[in-house]
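Quick one: structure tokens for this chain, please?
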Amino acid sequence: METQYHRPASVAEAAKLLAGEARLLAGGQSLVAAIKLGLASPSSLVDLRGIAGLDGIRVDAQRVSVGAMATHASVAASKEVARAIPALAQLAAGIGDRQVRACGTIGGSLANNDPAACYPAAVLGLGASVQTDQRQIAADDFFLGMFETALRPSEIITAVHFPIPERAAYEKFHQPASRFSLVGVMVAKTGGGVRVAVTGAGSCVFRCKALEVALTRKFAPESCDGVPVDASGLNDDLHGSAAYRAHLIPVLAKRAVARALG
């Protein structure tokens, strides 16, 4: 069966094309590789790159809004993002290699929800909301499991809204070959409390409540010392055992807090 290719000019037009085994094409960094490996065989590809305005970045006093088609490189290079949420620009600058950053998009990354991707940690850690063509989804409700999100089959991410935190930082221990996160930790001190999001360690990004409690008492690097992290259910593979990943989480959180405090 031949795969049909569509390049719609609007989100509404793209939504109408989503039927059967159709797949959205954003940066293509994951989907194209899956197709080449025979892991995906979409009936049609709906390319979002022809839709004007989906790659915009807007910053105001309360939040940073990043269009779904904004590349990692554009987020990393944005001076406005760097001023408002330095941790977000820093995280984007550390994703993959130069080619991945030039092509990959925030919307594509979130829709794919790879267990070791960096952006899910930013979205969950900063308490962002995912804007689609149908609704807004809070970060705590968006990530459901390995490669699974709350998105409906016909739903298209259009932007991500990040509230500006008091302080935040991201620390990543990456797998050298892929540069995916063996463990990545985003720590954010917000008006609603401290949030700690972990990627790479489990089947899906998650919040570490024990570290959040410790850092709420005192937002300081030493507060992470001795905080126990349960290794059960964490990833255990040739790159690192579950116990190793559990050990890395408070270590990286401590570094993130130190970076956030400057």
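The two ends are 56 Å apart (CA to CA).
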